[in-house]
Write a structure and sequence with these properties.
With 1324 residues, this protein is α+β, with helices and mostly antiparallel strands. The chain has 39 helices and 56 strands. Helix content is 34%, strand content 28%.
Length: 1324
C-alpha cells in the first residue's frame, strides 16, 4: 500500500561533456563521471569529472586512447567504471581492451594491461576483489584485483554445469496416456525456433550476485543444427570461474540482465509475437525472472500500450528496453526504456506477488530536442537514491567573440522514499481511504467499509496515457476529495463519493471535479489539498516544486470547476516537504526545521525543530489539552527514531519505530520489536517539559502495547471503525481492533448515553462489560432505565449481569447495581425479564438463591409456563444439587419436587428421603432438614421448638450441642428458661476440658455452681478468687489450709515464689515454708522482714544463710558457664574470619552449577578460579525463581541451626553471643539482690560475696572487649579501579556480612555499677 515519493532532487550541469559512465567514492562521497569525445580518426579522449556535494564539477583527470573498431555507432567505449576504495584508484575498462587505472590521490593515469582482441563487457564483484571480463572472442576471463588471471574459459559450451539436474521422467509427457496417437507421437521431438529479440544489441552482459559468490553471463549463442537462429543464453559461474548452470531456452530473450542483490532472482526481458520470439500476442513485452539453477521463476508485463508513442524511431515497436537495475535493498527494479519521444526510467515494486509501476522519470528535453539518458546508476548504500546522466545537448551563447556553441550534459540525482497516501479525515466522515499508484491508474480502497487485499482494490481512478504516472496525491481532511499531481505541474481534483456505511453498491463513485496545469510550475513533487472540491465550498491546492536553485509553493484556489487565484511563495530551503498541520501552511526543511507561514508577515517562521529530516511528519494541535493551543509535531526519521517537537522542546518517543499514525487521541507506532504502541496525546506536553530518564521510563511503562506480526507496518487507522490496518512484508493486509481505539469509542458512546452501541462494541471486541459502569457509575445509575430500554434483549442483559458478577468491584457495589437493574426490570415487565431477574439474584456475592426461588413461588400460580422455563434457566445458572438444597431449606416440598424433576434427578435418590421428612411433625421435620443441610444452629433452634411442642427432646438437644459445639447458639436459645443453668454447665464443662479454666470459672459462677468454679480457679492459679469463693461457701479451716498448701506448691512450680510465700503465710500460717519460698525466689529482703515480723530469728541461720550460699554458688556456676561459652565462640569467630579471608571460595562454597548434572569429573575439568563466578555462562539447569513458604521455613531452620562448617555458622555464633549478653544482664539482677545480704551475713558469706563480685566484674570486662572485637569493622581501603576490583566489589555486596545482619548487644554502662557493693571493692 506504499508509494514511492520524490523528496530530494538536484541537477548539475557538465559543460562540454558527453557523460557515458558514473562511479561513486563512498568514503569521500564524491561522484565521478566519464565523458568521451571521439574524432574522425578513431582517437578517443576521455575526461573524468569530479562532483562533490552539489558543488561545481571539476575536471579530475583526462587520458587518450583509441576506440574499438567492433563497437557500434554511438556505443560507449567505457564498459566498466568503478571506484576501488582499498587501493584508492578508479578503474576504467575500455572496449578496446585497455585496463586503465586512475589514482584518486593525484589523478595519475596508468594502463595496467590490454586484453586482445577487445573487451565486450566487464564487471567488478561487489567487494572489488574479482573482475569478470568477456572478450571479443567470447572468452570469459576472471581476474583478481591485481589483474592476475584466475581462469580463462570459452563461453559457448554444450555443458550444463556442475548443478545439472537429474531427470527421471516423472510427470513428463512421455509417461502420460497418449490415446489413439500412440507413444511414438508423444516421443516425437517438437521443432520450435528460439531466437533473440530484434531489439537485442548483440552484446554480452555480466551481473554479480549481491554477496559476490556467483555471477551470471548473458550472451548470444551461435546457430545450431536444430535451431537456425541465434538465441540468448544465461550461464551462472562461481567465484572460481566454474560453470554452475545454464538457463533453459527462452525465445525472444533480450540483452538486459541484472541479478537481484538479495540473490533470489535474475531479471531479464522477453519479447513475444514474432518468429523466434515467445508464443504470445505481438507486442507483448515481459520482465522475466530466473533462479540460479537456470529455471524460470515468474514474470510481469511491461505496459507496451503506454510506451509506444507516435514516433516510431526506436526499434520495431517504437521503444526498446536499454537496461535493468535493482536498488541496493532489492525492492525497486528500474527499467531504462528508449522511446521515440525520449528516454524514460520506470520504477517497479512488488507487493503480494504483483508488480506495481510506482514512478517514472523522463529525460529532460532541451530546446525541443528529445531527451536521452546515458547512464542509470543506483547508489550502493542509500537504497532509493538514483543517479542519471543525460546526453549532451548543444546551444549557443553570445559573447564578445560572437556566438559560442556550448555542449552540456546533466547529472540528475533523485532520492525517493516510501509514503502511504491515506485520508486524514476525522470522525464521523473518516473513510480510511488509501490510494496506491500503479502506472496511469490509482487503486482506491476505503477501509472503513471494505478491507480489500492488494493488488485488488475497491475502485480505480484511471488517467490518460499521455499523463504518465503521477508523482504525488493528497486527500482532503475535511471532505471526500483527492488531488493528484504530475511532475510537469498538471493537477486533477477528484470527488470520490465514498460510501461510509455498509451495504451493497459501489464503495467509491469518483468523478473529476477540476483539472489544469499550473503556469511556471516544473519539477513538482508534492501536493496538499485543503478544503473541499464539491458543492459551493472552495478548495485550496498547495503544490511544492523546484527549479533546482530554490523550492517554491504555488497556492491555487479553486471554486467548482474554475480557478480563482494563484500565489507563489519561496521556501526557506531547498528539498523541503509539506507537513500536515491542520489548516496552517507548514513545511519541513532538509535538516528537520519546521516552518509555518505567517500571512501577516508574509514569510515562513520557525516553530519547531526535529533532530533529523522526517519524511513522514504531522502536527497535532493540543487545544483541548493546553491553554496556549500548543502545537506538537511528530516525525519518523530514516534512523527509526520517532521525534516530537514543539518550540524549543524535543523528545524521542522511540528509537526503533517503523511506522506511525495519529488517531483517537493516540500516537500509534510499530517497532522493530514487532509490537504496536499507543502513546496518549495528552502525555506529550509532559514529555517535552520533563525529559529525565526516570520519568521517560515511567511514561513508557504506562503506554499500552500490542504484539503484531513480524515486520508489520501501519497503513491507516480508522477511528470510527476502531480499526488499525497493518501490512505485512509480503504485502497482505491485517485489520486489528486495538483496545485503546475501541475504548476511546466506547467511552465516547457511554458519555453520550449510547449504551447499545457501546455494549455491542465491548461484546464484539471482548472488552469487559463492566466498563459501562466503571466509566461513570453515578451516571449509569441515573440512566438505568435508558440502559434497559436500549439493551432490551434478555440474553444481552443476562450477559451484562453475568460480567457484573464476575467483576472486580466490591461485593456491596455489585449488590447495589444488581438490585438497581433488577428493580428496573421488575418495573418494566416481570414476566418478560424473569430470567434476567433471576440472574441478578444469582450473580451477587453471596448469591441470593432463596430470593430467586421465592420469585418462582410467586409466579407459580399465575404463570406456570413462565415458571417452568425460569426453573430450567436457573438450573442452567446454578448447580442443581445446590438449588435442591436451597429449595429444601425453604421447607417447600412442591418447590423441591419441581427443582428435582427439571434437574432430572433420580427419584430413587430423593423420594424416600422426602417421604421420611413428610412423616415428621413440623419443627422436628425442619430440624432434620437443617441437619441434612448442615445448618446446625437453625437445626438446634427447630429442635428446641420441637421439644416445646409436648415431646421433650432436651436430652437429644444436649447430645446435638455436644456433637457440634453449639454452646453459643444454645445459650441464646435457652436464655431465660429453666434449663439455662444446665446449658451453662455444659458450656463450662466443655471449656474446662479445653483447659480454658478462667473462662470455665466465670461460666460456673454464672450457673451458680461454685464448687466447680473453685476447682477451675485453682487450676487457673487464680488463688485470690479461689479463697474468696472459699469464704463465700463456708469452707472448713482444715480444707482451707490443705488448699493453701496445694496452691503454694503449684505456684512454686511456676516460679511464682513470692505469691506462694504469701499464700503460705495467709492461709496455711506456715512461716518456715514461706521463708523457704522467699529465698528460693531470691527475695532475701522480704524473707528477713517476715522473720523479724513473725519473731522467728532462728530461721536466719537455719534457712536464710544456707540459701544465700547456695544462690551465690549458683551464680558462680552460671558465670563460669558463660565464660566458657564466650571464649569458645570468640575463638571460633576468629578462626572463621581468617578462613573467610584466606579461602573465600571454600568458605562460601562457590561451585559451578553447570556441573550439577555430571556424574563423573574428568581429567580436563578444572576447579573454579577467582573469576569463574563472573565469567561462567548460563546453563539450562533448572533454578527455583522463588521460594515457597515451606522452603523459607526450612532455610530459616538451616540458618538457625548454625551447623559447623557452613556459611551460616558465623551468623549463628553472633546471635548466640547476643543471647549471652541478655543472660548476663539477668545474672547481674540476681547479684544485685544477693550481694547486700552476703555483706551483712557471716565472714564466710562476706568472702563469697567478694569472690562473686570480682568474678562478675572480670566477666563483664571480658565480655565487653569480646563484643567490641567481634563487631568492629576494618577501615575500608580505596581500591584500584580495574575490572577485577569491580567484580570483587560486586561479590562483596552480594555477600552480606553477618555483623550487618546481627545488631551488636549493648551492656548498660549505668547498670555496671548499680549491682556492685563498693565495700567489697575496698576490702579487695
Amino acid at each position: 500500500m506504499r508509494n514511492l515519493t520524490l523528496y530530494t532532487t538536484s541537477t548539475i550541469d557538465l559543460n562540454n561533456a558527453n557523460v557515458t559512465a558514473t562511479a561513486i567514492d563512498l568514503d569521500e562521497n564524491v561522484i565521478y563521471t566519464a565523458s568521451e569525445r571521439q574524432d574522425l580518426d578513431g582517437n578517443l579522449e576521455v575526461e573524468v569529472w569530479s562532483v562533490d556535494n552539489d558543488e561545481a564539477p571539476t575536471m579530475f583527470a583526462m587520458f587518450n586512447t583509441v576506440s574499438s573498431p567492433s563497437s557500434s555507432a554511438g556505443a560507449s567505449q567505457i564498459v566498466s567504471f568503478r571506484v576501488l576504495p582499498e587501493v584508492r584508484r578508479l578503474s576504467a575498462i575500455m572496449r578496446n581492451g585497455d585496463i586503465t587505472m586512475l589514482s584518486l590521490e593525484d589523478g595519475v593515469v596508468e594502463v595496467e594491461g590490454t586484453v586482445e582482441p577487445w573487451i565486450s563487457t566487464a564487471s567488478w564483484s561487489p567487494d572489488e576483489s574479482l573482475l569478470a571480463i568477456v572478450t571479443g572472442e567470447d572468452k570469459l576471463i576472471l581476474m583478481t584485483s591485481t589483474f592476475d588471471v584466475l581462469s580463462e574459459t570459452p563461453i559457448q559450451t554444450t555443458e550444463f554445469g556442475e548443478d545439472a539436474p537429474i531427470n527421471v521422467g516423472w510427470g513428463s509427457k512421455q509417461t502420460q496416456f497418449h490415446g489413439s496417437l500412440g507413444k511414438a507421437a508423444a516421443q516425437a521431438p517438437v521443432q520450435t525456433l528460439v531466437g533473440s529479440s530484434p531489439d537485442d544489441d548483440l552484446a554480452p552482459r555480466i551481473s554479480w550476485r549481491g554477496d559476490g559468490a556467483f555471477f551470471v553471463v548473458s550472451s548470444l549463442s551461435p546457430p545450431s543444427p536444430t535451431n537456425s537462429m541465434r538465441r540468448r543464453m544465461l550461464r551462472v559461474y562461481d567465484r572460481d570461474g566454474k560453470l554452475q548452470s545454464t538457463s533453459e531456452a527462452v525465445p525472444g530473450l533480450e540483452h538486459t540482465l541484472v541479478w537481484r542483490p538479495s540473490g533470489n532472482l535474475i531479471a531479464g526481458t522477453q519479447r513475444f509475437g514474432f518468429e523466434g520470439g515467445g508464443a504470445g500476442t505481438e507486442g507483448r513485452h515481459d520482465v522475466v525472472f530466473f533462479e540460479r539453477n537456470g529455471l524460470r521463476h515468474g514474470e510481469f508485463g511491461i505496459r507496451a500500450v503506454d510506451l509506444a508513442g507516435k514516433v516510431k524511431e526506436v526499434g520495431k515497436w517504437g521503444y526498446r528496453v536499454r537496461e535493468l537495475s535493482w536498488s541496493s535493498d532489492s525492492n525497486v527494479l528500474a527499467i531504462w526504456i528508449e522511446r521515440g519521444e525520449g528516454d524514460v526510467v520506470q520504477f517497479w515494486t512488488m507487493g503480494n506477488y504483483y508488480w506495481y509501476l510506482k514512478q517514472e522519470v523522463e529525460a529532460p528535453t532541451v530546446d525541443g530536442k528529445v531527451g536521452r539518458f546515458t547512464s542509470v546508476f543506483w547508489h550502493p548504500e542509500q537504497a532509493l537514491h538514483i543517479m542519471l546522466t543525460t546526453k549532451s545537448s548543444y546551444h549557443f551563447e553570445s559573447s564578445d567573440k560572437g556566438l559560442t556553441m556550448i555542449r552540456t550534459a546533466a547529472l540528475i540525482q533523485r532520492t525517493y522514499a516510501w509514503e502511504t497516501f491515506t485520508s486524514p479525515s476525522e470522525p464521523p466522515i473518516d473513510s480510511g481511504a488509501v490510494a496506491v499508484f500503479d502506472g496511469t491508474k490509482i487503486l482506491m480502497t476505503p477501509f472503513r467499509v471494505q478491507n480489500v487485499p492488494p493488488p485488488m482494490s475497491s475502485a480505480q481512478i484511471a488517467f490518460s496515457s499521455s499523463q504518465r504516472t503521477p508523482v504525488h496525491a493528497s486527500f482532503s481532511a475535511t471532505s471526500d476529495a483527492l488531488a493528484v499531481l504530475w511532475e510537469n505541474g498538471y493537477v486533477e481534483l477528484w470527488a470520490l463519493g465514498t460510501r461510509l456505511q455498509g451495504g451493497r453498491g459501489k464503495a467509491i463513485d469518483s468523478s473529476l471535479g477540476w483539472s489544469g496545469s499550473l503556469d511556471g510550475v516544473k519539477n513538482a513533487r508534492q501536493i496538499q489539498l485543503v478544503g473541499s472540491s464539491t458543492g459551493d465550498e472552495s478548495s485550496i491546492v498547495n503544490v511544492l516544486w523546484t527549479d533546482h536553485k530554490a523550492d517554491y509553493i504555488t497556492i491555487l484556489q479553486v471554486e467548482g470547476s474554475t480557478t480563482k487565484e494563484s500565489t507563489t511563495i519561496a521556501l526557506p530551503s531547498v528539498n523541503s516537504r509539506f507537513v500536515a498541520a491542520g489548516g496552517n501552511l507548514t513545511c519541513q526543511g532538509p535538516s528537520g526545521e519546521i516552518y509555518q507561514y505567517n500571512s501577516e508577515q508574509r514569510k515562513f517562521l520557525p516553530v519547531a525543530r526535529l533532530h533529523e529530516f522526517c519524511l513522514q511528519s504531522q502536527g497535532i494541535l493540543l487545544s483541548s489539552h493546553s491553554p496556549e493551543n500548543q502545537a506538537v509535531f511528530v516525525g519518523l526519521g530514516s534512523s527509526g527514531k520517532l521525534h516530537i517537537s514543539s518550540g524549543e522542546g524535543h523528545h524521542v518517543l522511540a528509537t526503533n519505530a517503523t511506522s506511525f499514525t495519529i488517531a483517537s487521541g493516540f500516537i500509534i507506532f510499530t517497532t522493530t520489536a514487532h509490537d504496536a504502541r499507543f502513546v496518549p496525546v495528552t502525555s506529550l506536553s509532559g514529555l517535552l517539559v520533563e525529559s529525565q530518564d526516570a520519568e521517560v521510563k515511567q511514561e513508557k511503562a504506562e503506554w499500552e502495547t500490542r504484539r503484531v506480526e513480524r515486520g508489520s507496518r501501519i497503513v491507516v487507522a480508522v477511528p470510527s471503525a476502531m480499526a488499525l490496518v497493518l501490512q505485512m512484508p509480503r504485502g497482505n493486509l491485517e485489520t486489528i481492533n486495538p483496545r485503546p481505539l475501541v475504548m476511546e469509542v466506547v467511552k465516547q458512546d457511554i458519555g453520550t448515553g449510547n449504551y447499545r452501541k457501546a455494549f455491542f462494541a465491548c461484546r464484539k471486541h471482548r472488552i469487559d462489560l463492566n466498563v459501562l459502569i466503571e466509566h461513570d457509575e453515578e451516571k449509569f445509575l441515573e440512566r438505568i432505565s435508558s440502559f434497559v430500554e436500549q439493551i432490551h434483549e434478555v440474553d444481552h442483559i443476562n450477559l451484562f449481569l453475568s460480567n457484573l458478577g464476575r467483576g472486580s468491584q466490591p461485593q456491596e457495589n455489585i449488590a447495589k447495581l444488581c438490585d438497581a437493574v433488577r428493580a428496573e426490570l421488575e418495573r418494566k415487565d416481570l414476566k418478560q425479564y424473569v430470567n434476567s431477574i433471576l440472574t441478578a439474584y444469582v450473580v451477587k456475592t453471596p448469591p441470593e438463591y432463596e430470593a430467586g426461588l421465592s420469585l418462582l413461588l410467586r409466579l407459580r400460580e399465575s404463570d406456570p409456563e413462565v415458571v417452568e422455563d425460569a426453573v430450567k434457566y436457573i438450573i442452567f445458572l446454578v448447580d442443581a444439587n445446590r438449588l435442591f438444597d436451597t429449595a429444601l431449606g425453604m421447607y417447600d416440598f412442591s418447590l423441591v419436587l419441581m427443582i428435582a424433576q427439571h434437574a432430572q434427578k433420580d427419584p430413587r435418590e430423593y423420594l424416600p428421603f422426602l417421604r421420611e421428612l413428610r412423616a415428621l411433625e413440623k419443627y422436628y421435620q425442619r430440624f432434620k432438614i437443617d441437619d441434612h443441610l448442615k445448618r446446625y444452629e437453625s437445626a438446634l433452634r427447630n429442635l428446641s421448638l420441637a421439644g416445646s411442642a409436648g415431646n421433650d427432646r432436651f436430652e437429644e438437644a444436649v447430645t446435638y450441642i455436644e456433637s457440634h459445639n453449639l454452646y453459643d447458639a444454645a445459650l441464646s436459645i435457652w436464655k431465660g428458661t429453666n434449663r439455662y443453668n444446665m446449658v451453662l454447665e455444659l458450656y463450662g464443662d466443655w471449656l474446662f476440658e479445653r483447659r480454658e479454666f478462667r473462662q470455665a470459672a466465670s461460666v460456673f459462677i454464672e450457673a451458680q455452681n461454685l464448687s466447680k468454679a473453685m476447682v477451675a480457679h485453682e487450676k487457673a492459679l487464680e488463688w485470690q478468687e479461689l479463697f474468696y469463693l472459699a469464704s463465700q461457701t463456708g469452707m472448713s479451716e482444715e480444707d482451707i489450709v490443705a488448699t493453701g498448701y496445694r496452691v503454694a506448691e503449684d505456684l512454686t512450680s511456676k516460679k511464682r515464689h513470692s505469691e506462694a510465700a504469701q499464700v503460705l503465710l495467709d492461709y496455711a500460717n506456715d512461716v518456715r515454708e514461706a521463708i523457704i519460698a522467699y529465698v528460693q525466689g531470691n527475695h532475701f529482703s522480704e524473707a528477713r522482714r517476715i522473720i523479724a515480723l513473725k519473731s522467728k530469728p532462728e530461721l536466719v541461720e537455719d534457712v536464710v544463710h544456707p540459701a544465700a550460699l547456695e544462690s551465690c554458688n549458683q551464680i558462680m556456676e552460671d558465670i563460669n558457664e558463660c565464660l566458657e561459652q564466650l571464649r569458645k565462640q570468640l575463638s571460633r569467630v576468629r578462626e572463621l574470619r581468617i578462613r573467610k579471608v584466606e579461602e573465600p571460595d571454600a568458605f562460601y562454597g562457590t561451585e559451578d552449577v553447570a556441573l550439577h548434572n555430571i556424574d563423573v569429573m574428568t581429567d580436563v575439568s578444572m576447579a573454579p578460579t577467582t573469576f569463574t563466578r563472573y565469567t561462567v555462562a548460563p546453563t539450562t539447569t533448572s533454578r527455583s525463581s522463588r521460594r515457597t513458604s515451606r522452603s523459607k521455613r526450612k532455610m530459616e531452620r538451616k540458618v538457625g541451626s548454625g551447623r559447623k562448617g557452613t556459611v551460616d555458622e558465623e551468623e549463628y555464633l553472633l546471635k548466640s553471643l547476643t543471647k549471652l549478653a541478655v543472660r548476663f544482664a539477668t545474672i547481674q539482677d540476681e547479684a544485685r539482690n544477693l550481694l547486700p545480704h552476703l555483706l551483712q551475713f557471716t565472714p564466710e558469706h562476706r568472702e563469697e560475696g567478694m569472690t562473686m563480685q570480682k568474678h562478675l566484674i572480670d566477666f563483664a570486662d571480658e565480655l565487653q572487649h569480646s563484643l567490641d572485637e567481634i563487631w568492629s569493622k576494618p577501615p575500608e581501603e580505596i581500591p584500584v579501579d580495574s575490572w577485577a576490583t569491580r567484580m570483587e566489589q560486586v561479590e562483596k555486596e552480594r555477600r552480606v556480612n553477618p555483623v550487618d545482619k546481627v545488631p551488636k548487644p549493648e551492656l548498660s554502662s549505668s547498670g555496671r555499677k548499680e549491682w556492685r557493693i563498693n565495700l567489697f571493692d575496698f576490702e579487695t
